[in-house]
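Why show two proteins at once? Because comparison is the fastest way to build intuition. When a single record is shown, students tend to memorize it. When two are placed side by side, the eye starts asking what differs. So, the first record is below.
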Amino acid sequence: MNASALTAAAAAAPATDAIATASATAASRVAPYRYIHKGLRVLMAHTLQRAGALDAADQADRAAIVKEVERLLATCTDHLAHENRFFHEALRARAPSAVRPFHNDHLHHLEAISALHRLLQRLRDAAPEKAPVLAYELFLRLSVFVGENLAHMAEEESTLTQALWAHFSDAELAAIEGALHATLEPEDMAFYVHWMGQGLNASEAIALLGDLRAHAPAEVYAVTAGDIEDVMPVQRWARVARGLGLRPVHGRMTV
């Protein structure tokens, strides 16, 4: 390995180690960011692909994409608020220095969201001959936004999660998660589940639904399981259903 490669490897070591450590530990600890971040990644990728394929000369297509990007931005804003209120505040009371860089990232994300809202307004109101230029600008700026968020979420799932593990028990983390979930309206929960269900692997879905079955009302479990079944590939859902001990009906699994 040459000198430049050694330097690069040394520079990458802290982040790599944090990711490796968190990955090895996540199965045995409460990992509060894991499932929701999988859903957000799917939503971001879907919205970015849709923005890239926008036919800006088509007013209806333009309006539809603007609405989709606005929904993504609203979801990101809500997610930041949830993290700030429930996890950052709790950790700030025990390890304030661990929260600071993530708080600063959140402020940057909010600035980026505001800038994207302004660009969406310009695109919505643009004359037909100017719309394609603004549509491409939206795609590029949304690409940057998504890229920054992907890196940020990886840091939260590694470095920040390890700080939470160091200062909170699993019971405490589960209680914080429960308090957050209690603030969500049913339609908001369904929205998150729609995107999470597309991103979870079978083992994760089994763990999520198994915990829900053990601790949530039966109707909440049944609705969530049905929502995940609706968006999962059939073969993956079949593995989930077998893992949960559900029975097949007409070639599908049911609760």
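Second record. Ask yourself what differs from the first in the token line.
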Amino acid sequence: MTACTEPVVAAKSGAAAVEAAVFVRHDLADAAVRAASHARLYLGSETCESLVPAARTVRQLQQLVRARRIALTLVTPPCTDRGLLRVERMLGVTAPGTEVVCNDWGVLERLHDSPFKPVLGRLLLRIPRGFSRLALDHMSREMRAFVRHSSLDSAEFRAFLAEQRVTRVELDNVAQGYSFRAGPTLRTSLYHPYVYIASGRRCLHERLRGRDDAYRTGRACGKTCHDVVVVGKIGPAGERVLVSECAHFYENALVRAALPARARPWGVDRLVDCSALAAGRAALPTKFLHREDRGISWSENFT
């Protein structure tokens, strides 16, 4: 699994420009490479508070984006009190006006009177997730309409976002699509190729290392997820599921990383390449190369 590094701009005449953004992990050399072909870098974690960027990393990325004249977006996960303290330290060195993606309602509240631009993360957007894409072909028209319904179809939710100064929402490229229309006051970012399914606080990567107890008691995280990608197959069709950080994802790639026609009513003006979720750098011990866990076949995939 490799990242698409081709910059994305609107190809059709009369269409608004589509900004090309890309997730980077904590590898500054990788960030420098991706900065050459993208207009914006995303730094942080959507799912694990142990991976909130350190102040030093944020300072270095800010220097890089200023030198390259591109933009930076910081991403935050669901947080305990400990995670909120990490986010506070990160924000303490963040330049005013920086976008901050919130995947935790507490972090969103913290940003209400801040100098930063709050963005609603894809974890906070309610939409049916994780079902088999093959099932769409067997759904009735009414059921397909139901599974396209999201929080953004609610006028009350849109009003709440306006009260929180949120003018941008992060979207998954869910297989079924969405039924809402963005309107003039809301812009959206579409993530590809991985679609978020679910997450939790127990880390499969640490469990495979035999360190589950250390993870749950709050001792230092070994950041095993920076080294390995776990790919599972689930269901009768053996559909692939990616386990990255503390979350599960399925793949729904865009054709040539281009904005699909069905996305135009959603107000998408940015494509976010999140293929870094599948970036691994080292192998686990041989005994973990294949594992059966509760009926799911797991294997490691390395880049």
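One difference worth noting in the second protein: DSSP finds eight helices and 14 strands in the chain.
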